Amino acid sequence: MGQVAGRKNGLAECLAGLNGEVEVLTDRWGVPHIYAADGHDVFVAQGFVAARERLCQMDLWRRKGLGLMSAAFGPSYVEQDRAARLLLYRGAPDWSHYGPAVKCGAEAFVTGVNAFIDLCLEREELLPREFHELEYRPGHWHAEDLIRIRTGAGYTNLDQEVARAVTIAKYGPQAEDLRRFRAEGHRLVIPDGLDPADVPEDVLRDYRLATGSLKGGSNNWVIGATRTRSGRPILANDPHHAMTVPSHRFLTHLVAPGLNVIGAGEPQLPGITIGHNGSIAFGVSFFGIDQEDLYVYQTDQDGCYRYQDAWEVPHRVTEYIPVRGEAAREVSLAYTRHGPVLREQPGQMFALRAAWLEPGMAPYLGGVHLMQARDTKELRAMLAKWGAPGENYVYATPSGEIGWQAAGRVPVRRGWDGTLPVPGDGRYEWDGFRSTDLLPSSVNPPEDLIVTANEQNFPRELQKDVPIGYDWLAPQRSARIREVLTNGTKWTVEGGLGLQVDELNPLARKVVPVLLRSAGRPADPAVRRALSLLLAWDFLDSADAAAPAVFHVWFRRHLRPALLRDALAPHVRPDRLADAVEAVLPDETLAGDPRVDLQLLRSRLDDRELLRSTFADAVTELVAAHGRRPEAWRWGDLHTLTFTHPLACLLPESYELPPFPRSGSGDTVGSTAFDPSFRQVLGASLRIVIDVGAWDESVAVNAPGQSGRPESKHYDDHIDAWSRGNAFPLSYSRPAVERFTESRLVLRPPGVTDQPSALS
Fold first, then answer.
1. DSSP strands (E only) in 444-534
2. How many angstroms separate the first and last alpha carbons of the chain?
3. Which string of DSSP letters, residue by residue, matches 641-670?
4. What is the pTM of this model?
């Protein structure tokens, strides 16, 4: 393959696997607009272009998913590789579940990825720097990789099942009620035959090695035509993920006969999951379907597990993991009738049953089919086949139709609710899956507005027959979005973009007045000045303000632990109280849930001493760290963001971007969830707002940038606009694309001469 001078001040590349010529116009923000003469070629080109910009990220996704990290990085990754292989989909190829032409699209996409890898191996100067620095090379892809890898979608229920069992066993059911707010105050019932003490704290070690520990969320909404200045619907979406470089999503525009779709997808997958196709705009946010269960088995001395009245032999698989610099390591994997064995110990075995290990459940692969829907009826029919992860799918059309459909497979459990592990002896089985047409949905609601933000957004009655799940995130983001949107009828794209970074803290708006009513006049002048900051605060978590720093240090590090300690004290031995408080503190990296705290605070409204003492302790901490002048404190000095490379532990610091101050928190619409040091770890690196019908008026931003190559101008060129809540045009029409085109690339089959393109 050789690069030759192209026409129109561009370049041309010969690319095996193409049927004809493809033109790639990259705009000034790094978004590739791909024009092909047939559907096969547009996916080949998508794979090639994605690999050109994100090859290291894509190669890591494949290595992690298939259990091939040790081959590149050595023996310290063997356990992770074994865990990944344990959770691979091991059934027959299940292409038919994802919709017509998905297999062909996936095969074409992989052809493009491999073409770029071949080009890099031929001309090693094209390889991303990481491969040179760490002295390894990318592996070639197979289309089946996309359906075998199932571990990258942010599942959550299994973590909660185990945490519940461990908390109940160590500290009692009252502690569990304080640890996690369950939907509608759902009462826990321990399944017959389960002893929570039998569940080891580290039973999910392999599961977490394979799936990762940080989960996501999202906001999306559709503003109907009666509420916008233009009289057209507006759709907004900002998925939340770990804050990494490069970002989790990749913006692309795909054009071929019968296809013209633009938006964001997973770099490692064909197609688009958030965007529009000129007929329908669509977006997603996580919908918390309980798709996982932990089974606990009794085992005998031969390693067999009891099922009903018999002993069954686990299916065991031996695999060999290639290890850099060493001989391959032999590992053993075990499976019961329910799924992969996560842990074995004398007398017991623990296995995962997961809907996402069933046929048709490869995360997001069905998006290739969905993005081609021509109308909403066709779209809803396609959504009936959606598997994993659970999604709130919102949509809008130029005619003014807006809608929401919850999508994903809901296991039908007979005799238990899925909130705790269950014995694997046959008493607790799934009875198929709930029909998608029975999942919640809405079309053209009277308020002409649809909002989702991972909260329980459906009536309680819907849980009665077949529970969907009980671990929904707190509703404050959704409530705030509704509060703002229902107060206006002249919404614009710019207004929607501003709402995505809304800094108002609904939690502080409820809690701070309680403190101020009880504070009195403290003797310490620093405490008085800190109180005056809260008195004048507009409840915006602004990076350059002092009040948010005061509030978050007080509420999270002092008031919350004190409330939990007092609530646990009657139920936990004094020598175990500190450990119990630590066990039930919310995980802030998941956008901590304040509902339990608010309940406890309401019961302590008259306890002025608690409020005063915890606040004084918080001010003492801030003074020690930031000086005695509260007016000089800044939330952005505590709350910072560093975009982190996934191989940061192996690479020089030059791959990471400098830290910078951040507004917001896990409580705000502009979600910037943080770790215990207030460092942001989760948020919306991608934001997109679509003007439905006036497509060229849509905007997007994808921080830190479109490219994963540090030498590229598009590695971090979105940060400034993103951090200020701005975006760039998401051009759709060919004239608009041409107006912002920065570079041109023509891809041709080998042997084709430089002739004028039929795509001109």
1. 449-452
2. 24
3. E--B-TTTTTS-GGGSPPPEE----TTSSS
4. 0.95
DSSP state of 123: S
Contact indicator for 244, 644 with CB cutoff of 8 Å:
yes
Beta bridge partners, 450, equal 222
Place of tokens 């493809």: 22
Q: At 496, which helix (H) or strand (E)?
A: helix 493-500
What does DSSP say about strands 441-443 and 686-691: parallel, antiparallel, or unpaired? Answer: unpaired
Exposure string of 674-709, with b = 16+ CB inside 10 Å and e = fewer, is beeebbbbbbbbbbbbbbbbebebbbbbbbbbbbbb
C-alpha of 552 from chain center: 24
Quick one: average pLDDT of 460-488?
Answer: 91
Contact between 194 and 296 under an 8 Å Cβ cutoff? The reply is: yes
Among 485, 437, 434, smallest CA distance to 463 is for: 434
CA distance 384 to 391: 12
Q: Residue 752, by phi and psi: left (phi above 0), alpha (psi -120 to 50) or beta?
A: beta
pLDDT value for 10: 65
Rounded CA separation 496/698 (Å) = 11
* Tens digit of each residue's pLDDT (9 = 90 or more) over 373-420: 999 999 999 999 898 899 999 999 999 999 999 999 999 998 899 999
H or E element, residue 13: strand 11-14
pLDDT, tens digit, 9 for 90 and up, residues 526-557: 999 999 999 999 999 999 999 999 999 999 99
